[in-house]
């Protein structure tokens, strides 16, 4: 994407009512919407998409479930510009996007404020030195546990066999509750419909070349 196009998207994001771009200091000093997301939306459940990219999952789920609020989080605003713009064009009032780092999630949301989390095709961070950046490492799971309601669930959908295996091993080893796991959901007759019916741009490309898509649904137990 050209730099001029990026700048144009950044400027448009500034005008979008469904885009929130807090400064890091604002989050650290006490994010005003923490514990008060109902003032931005309503009292309906809140579902997050972490590392949302273009917001394809956020938008698709919001269309299907108007009584649930969806929030996409990503640091790259030029990417989720597409999702934010689509939501406004379609008058999807149950959608928002936050431009920030995912590790700040427990400063953005209060304890038990979130009903569900989706992590779709994250960077697997395969090198050992990048372990701390994997979105399903133990530190991230603790943050998710803080903001999720007691029965809240996390969904991980990825094309990375490494990420799938790493997460599954960590979950079993720590005693968390795995509700569903499969290494190739499009070859499994019992895969959840919501996982099969929504495909990201890159996912479609992976499927065209026969690359398996994996999925884990789990609850974090401590």
Give an overview of the whole structure:
Catalyzes the formation of N(7)-methylguanine at position 46 (m7G46) in tRNA. One of its GO terms (molecular function) is tRNA (guanine(46)-N7)-methyltransferase activity. It catalyses: guanosine(46) in tRNA + S-adenosyl-L-methionine = N(7)-methylguanosine(46) in tRNA + S-adenosyl-L-homocysteine. It comes from Lutibacter holmesii. This is tRNA (guanine-N(7)-)-methyltransferase. This protein has 222 residues and is α/β, with parallel strands linked by helices. Helices cover 37% and strands 22% of the residues. It has 9 helices and 8 strands. The protein has helices spanning 3-15, 24-30, 56-64, 77-89, 105-108, 138-147, 161-174, 193-196, 201-208; strands spanning 19-20, 46-50, 69-74, 95-99, 114-120, 148-158, 177-182, 214-219. An 8-stranded mixed beta sheet has the order 1-4-3-2-5-6-8-7, with helices on both faces. The longest helix is centred in the C-terminal third of the chain and has 14 residues, at 161-174. It starts with a helix and ends with a strand. The model has no long low-confidence stretch (mean pLDDT 94).
